[in-house]
Amino acid sequence: MSQAGAHASGPVLRCDAVERHFGGLVALSGVDMQIERGEIFGLVGPNGSGKTTLTNAITGFYPPQSGRILLHGRDITGLAPHKVARLGVARTFQNLALFNGMTVLDNILLGRHVHMRPSVVRTALYWFMSRQDEIANRAVVEEVIDFMQLESVRDELVDAIPIGLKKRVELARALVAEPEFLILDEPMAGMNQEEKEYMARFILDARDERGVTVLLIEHHMDIITGICDRMLVLSYGEVIGTGIPRDVIADPGVIKAYLGGAHTAA
Amino acid sequence: MLFRQAGIFHTDYAADRAMFPIPLDRWMVGVLLALGLAAPWVFSSLALTSYVMPWLIWAAAALGLNLILGWAGQFHFGYAAIMGIGAYTAVHGVRAGIPWEIAVVLGGLMATVVGIVFAFAALRVKGLYLALSTLALQFVMDWVISHVPAISGGVSATLQAPTLRLLGQQVTSEAGLYYVALGWCLFVTVFMLNLRRTALGRALVAVREKDFAAAVIGVQSFYYKLVAFATSSFIGGVSGAILVFTFYHAVTPEQFSVNVSIELLAMVIVGGLASIIGSYFGAAFILLLPGQINQLVAWTAKLMGADIGVETLAHIPQMVYGALIIGVLLVEPMGLGKLYANVRNYLLVWPFGYARK
């Protein structure tokens, strides 16, 4: 099912001294990060600390001005986003990026894009060239719909469902691409406790059942300490702590920059 | 009730993805198809050649424009020029002795090539800027067609279209020409229906809705915009060629001037973006309604015995027509296709409206 195992050894992702600035604003200055296979890796930091910029640097939206990004040891620095996607990297967005006007099903089917070969001729000769392919991919999508428990909203327009479900649809769209490396940018923003717990379980299941390596950006420290194997803290574009969550959140520098004085891993 | 869904259980994905999963839709399409095939006997000669046939061809062209405007979400103000390129290429092709079918396809291909070359430049900008650069395509092509004697035969010249020969057989009868138009229109319609359920159609909508989100799932926006431009140019080029061979019988630059481009846009927008049946409605609205309003106004004036001057009489229909366009877009900004969809959605559960969540 998953492509995991194709690159059995070495870290999934390595960032070497990644720098990115926008005009005079330094968003990332010399960030080093290494994510091992099968990890759920937490990325935290105050607002504006460069978490999303780092994600955008990895996925090719804002190529870093210096430094290198290696995926399975292969240099992907500056590669266009759609090419990064084809290398088995999937992501979700902080402010949802679903396609309005389409059903939940079609949105998730779009996640299969990298595995399909859309063309005009295949569309014109649907019955001979597309139908089998569409059905085969539909089967994969249905499996993920099952996994994410989205059966009941399958045929709804994606604009019409509540935000908690939208987040789940976006995760489903990322998962059907069968990525090896999944970046989740605040998948639990705006969710209540129950929805958060659901999402945490889906992320754990995605790792355990599908062998996906996960980079998780999150503000909820309970989630980070609860499901992440290792984590990294950014502040003003610099790494101020990395390691096992329990150790990192006990670090005085991290507490000062991010947790705000008292130790409140609630 | 009418579009009954109860009791229809799809047991495989193929049935779920069928073109028309609801029986009443299938019946309606069947009836329309039968009517389309029987049209030469149902309609009078006048109605067939001056209303039904051009309507079908313009509907095909509107579908082509809808592909780029409604599906891929890119403005195109030069669609008439694209049709003109197809028409002139095909006419010259046939005059040079190329078989009709091949010449028409060549017309489509020529339109595609010009469309792609132009899109390479135009697609570097978005939104209104793209609209303006496609308008430039229209003006450039207008000028080239009318000022290059090898193409138009000289300024304000009319180029006769040779007789349509399908597979070597001369087609001159009204019914024959009508069936050629019907065939092309059906082909385009089926293509668009398929587009709604293939990866290509989904990719186009993804580009339209959010191109950064499209990129992150591996959809290369620029490539799919180009594909959309190319495909819609092909449809436009062939539609232009068929229009000339079956309807106009001669080709002049004015047939594909800028106001025709605007009319095509109106067809798509009044009909409904990304709506297939809407393109038919839109083409009918823009193409056929003005004539009907004219007659209606003249008839009403006569009936009421009102003494209205000829000039006023000529202007009233235009005002009514303009008001109707505004009215439709006020009632439903997504056009006539959406109006139809609203009615259909209502009838899906009627008379048990409370069953809807």
In short:
The complex is a heterodimer of chains A (266) and B (357). Chain A has 266 residues and is α/β, with parallel strands linked by helices. Chain A is 37% helix and 23% strand.
Structure, described:
The complex is a heterodimer of chains A (266) and B (357). Chain A has 10 helices and 10 strands. Chain A is an alpha/beta fold and 266 residues long. Chain A has a domain at 1-79 and 215-266: 3-Layer(aba) Sandwich (Rossmann fold), CATH 3.40.50. In chain A, helix 3 packs parallel to helix 6 (163-176) and helix 5 crosses helix 6 (163-176). Mean pLDDT of chain A is 88; it is low at 1-5. Chain B is an all-alpha fold. Chain B is 74% helix and 3% strand. In chain B, helix 4 (79-95) packs antiparallel against helix 5 (100-122). The longest helix of chain B has 29 residues, at 276-304. Chain B is globular, with a radius of gyration of 22 Å. Chain A binds chain B through residues 59-61, 80-82, 85-86, 90-91, 93, 97-102, 106, 109-114, 116-120, 122-124, 126, 130-131, 133-135, 137-139, 142, 173-174, 177, and chain B through 12-14, 17, 191, 194-195, 197-203, 205-206, 209-210, 212-220, 227, 230-231, 274.
